[in-house]
Amino acid sequence: MRALTMSEVFGNKEDVFEDCKKQVQVLSSNEKYRLTAEIVLKNGDRRYYRAKTVDKNSAVREILTFVAALEEGIGENVMWRFKGEDKYHFSTNFEAKPSLIQQAKSAFLRYFFDLEA
Questions:
Q1: Do 79 and 64 meet the contact criterion of CB atoms below 8 Å apart?
Q2: pLDDT digits (tens, 9 = 90+) for 12-64
Q3: 5 HSE (CA, 13 A, CB side)
Q4: Domain ranges in the chain?
Q5: DSSP letter string over 62-87?
Q6: How would you class 17 by CB atoms within 10 Å of its CB: exposed for 0-12, middle for 13-18, buried for 19 or more?
Q7: pTM of the model as a whole
Q8: Per-residue pLDDT averaged across 88-96, rounded?
Q9: I need a labelling partner for 81 at 20 to 30 A (CA). Which of 10, 33, 43, 57 fits?
Q10: Of 37, 111, 42, nearest to 74 (Cα)?
Q11: What's the first-to-final CA gap in the chain, in angstroms?
Q12: Which residues pair with 81 in a beta bridge?
């Protein structure tokens, strides 16, 4: 016997969003705060996906996996952002902020050498 998806339970076979949640590996988390991503579809619908982890690096990987599965399911690109942030990311293009060590290293090198930012 096969398990039913949420879209099959409610009779809507076209709800790819719920079906793509299965493709993300379930991670257990005992923490209180989990990160949430707001996903904007091409037709303007906004959907929210709550990551299973509280670590931002793991949440980014999980959300990028979900976005890739969603785009494959609907055949269109989507925009997304973390709830509370102003910057949207298009598709799976995500540029992480450099760490404090990387920022210090580049500042040190720029001080002594003529490097372009």
A1: no
A2: 556 677 667 665 644 444 545 688 899 998 888 899 999 888 788 888 889 99
A3: 15
A4: 6-112
A5: HHHHHHHHHHHHHSS--EEEETT-S-
A6: buried
A7: 0.59
A8: 82
A9: 10
A10: 42
A11: 58
A12: 38
